[in-house]
Amino acid sequence: MIRVLLVDDQPLLRSGFRALLDAEGDIEVVGEAADGEQGVALARELLPDIALVDIQMPVLDGIEATRRIAADPALADVHVVILTNYGLDEYILDALRAGAAGFLVKDIVPEDFLPAVRVAARGDALLAPSITRKLIDRYIAQPLPAGTVTGLDELTNRECEAVALAARGLSNDEIAERMVISPTTAKTHLNRAMAKLHARDRAQLVVLAYESGLVTAGQP
Question: Where is the Response regulatory domain (predicted)?
Answer without folding.
Answer: 3-121
